[in-house]
Every structure is written in C-alpha cells, then in structure tokens.
Amino acid sequence: MADRKTLADSKRWVIKIGSSLITNEGQGLDVRAMQSWTKQIAELRKRGKEILLVSSGAVAEGMARMNWSKRPHALHELQAAAALGQMGLIQQFESCFQQHGIHTAQVLLTHEDLSDRQRYLNARSTLRTLLSLGAIPIINENDTVATDEIRFGDNDTLAALVANLVEADTVIILTDQQGVYNKNPRTNDDAELISSANASDPELLKVAGDGGHLGCGGMRTKITAAQRAARSGATTLIASGSDEEVLIKIADNQVLGTLLTADSSPLATRKQWLANQLKVKGSLQLDAGACRALTKNSLLAVGVTCASGQFQRGDVVSCLDANGNEIARGLINYNATEVELIKGKASSKIEKLLGYIDEAELIHRDNLVLL
Question: Which CATH architecture has domain 4-272?
C-alpha cells in the first residue's frame, strides 16, 4: 500500500482542477490561481515528474462570459457555453505555461473515446507521445459534442480514466475543500478531515456529498474516481486547490488533504480497460454457483439466469449477482438473442440450440475482470 512518501516520490501525476477553483466560483477565469498552479507544475517538471492536467471550467467560463448565474439545463446551451469557455480556458493555460518555456497540448475526450478499444489505444499513444516530447497535455471532456456525458460525466472520473490510460502513479484532485470529511463540513462544525483511507473503503461513500451549482461532481465522484484509479495501482490525493503552493507541498511530502490508496496490485492493461468501461451494453444475472466460479473460471451459459440489453458479440456486458450487484464485466462471445436461447444450458447444448458454436464460454476468463 502506498504512503505519502511514495506519492511524493512518484513520477507520473494526473492533476485535476475543479470548475469552482479555476473560475473563482463562477466569476470568470482566476488568472492568478492559474499562474500559481502552472508555476508549481513547472517546478515539478524540473524535479523529473511527468504531468497531465485535467481541467474543468469550460462550461463555467462560458457561463461567466454570457453572464449566466445558473448552469443551464438545455443541452444546446451547455454545449454553447462549453465552446465559448474552452477558448478562454486553453488560451490562458497556454499563456501561463509559455512563461516557463513549456508547450501545452489541448486534448478533448469523451467517454466513448475510452470505451472503443481502438480509440482508447490511439488516445494512449498520443498522450504518451506528448509526455515524451515534454509537453503538458491539458485534458477536458469534449462537452461541445458530447450528449449524455455533459449531463452525467465529470472530470474526476475522466482524471481516473486518464490515469489508467497512461499508467500514472498518482492522481491529484484539487477541489474547494481540504479533503474528505467524516461529515459535511459546510453544515457541521465538528466535521473532521479524513487524513488517509483505503480507496475501496465503503464508509467513504456514506460521508460523501454532492457537487455545487458550477460543476457536476461532488466528493462522491472524487471517491469513485479514486476507486477507479486504484484499479491500476494509482494513489489519489484530494486536497484544496486554494492552499498556497499545494502541489509543491505534496511533492515535499507534507501532510495535507485525504490520501486514498490502492489495496491491490495493478490490473493488466486490457483488464483495466474492461473494468473502466462506463458504457456497458447489457447485463447477465448469475446464479450463486456461477458467481463463486468467476474467481477462477470463465463464465458459462449454464450459470446465467437472466439477460438484458441489446448487445452484440464482442460488446462489454456486466455480470450481476442475485441481488443485482455488479461483480464483474467482460467481452461477450454471443449476442443478446443467442444468449436468450442458451442461458441456463450446458455448453454441450449450444451447437444444438444455435445450429453452431463459436466458443464454449459466454465470457472467457481472459476477457473478464472482477469488480
């Protein structure tokens, strides 16, 4: 399990900055704060660290430019705000980093870019190349063309997925809170900061709250992001972006924020991709025997009690226990219509039921990851 010293010494960091920070609670881009963060990142670069910056703020900056006080609900207005704001956001970061002789690269992603295997690999190669060239990738969701991502997506999750993508050691989430508290600090004077915890600790989500009006995440999404990052062995630190020299303090092994550590060794790259699919195409409900068998074996049709969704061969599907809890996901070998015919049946009967057989397993263990 990683500790603060290990985090401080780690080489590849994904740093995420939230909307309320970067736009000074919606008043427009906080140029002074951006200059401070870029100066700190330049210092981290001198210390040999590779940095990827995931920056929120496009929608919030667009709102400020249009004098909108509330985040709009209409999709076309959100997309327009993102288009307006992204221009100012990336322009200001470029200007700040140029003062330190550092090149930047704008990278706009949607979750679909990371759910399609080929696009995932392309994004991975591009980001790794940018790092090798000494550039700072500045990453944001492509809100201008996204659909449900702009309603349900958040850059905490994107930061974790980027960490998985490039095998980063550390995720730093800068927010408007000091870290994760045992109760809401805005309404409870006796709330205490949680200094460190295991990312998978179920108690964390019980104390997490929702986001504010500017962003679409909250402490809950940050904890969930830490859990995603932990799947590839990355440690997450949630800290206040308003803390002076916060990034330097982290690199100097000072104790601040909430450290959320991984409790297991990194998953293989292919299984990381499977584990982090946000857009599964369907689900399979399994009996108790199949749930137990998944720890060592492939999934067979005989263990499936119910199937839902319109999935095709090769799609990612969820595996659920009898209570509907997701316990695994993987690449299915048969489409939804075929699974309906063979669910609950022995593998020896597949050919007779379908007239052919591709694979004896519904999901091979090499294409299956436990959650």
Answer: 3-Layer(aba) Sandwich (3.40)
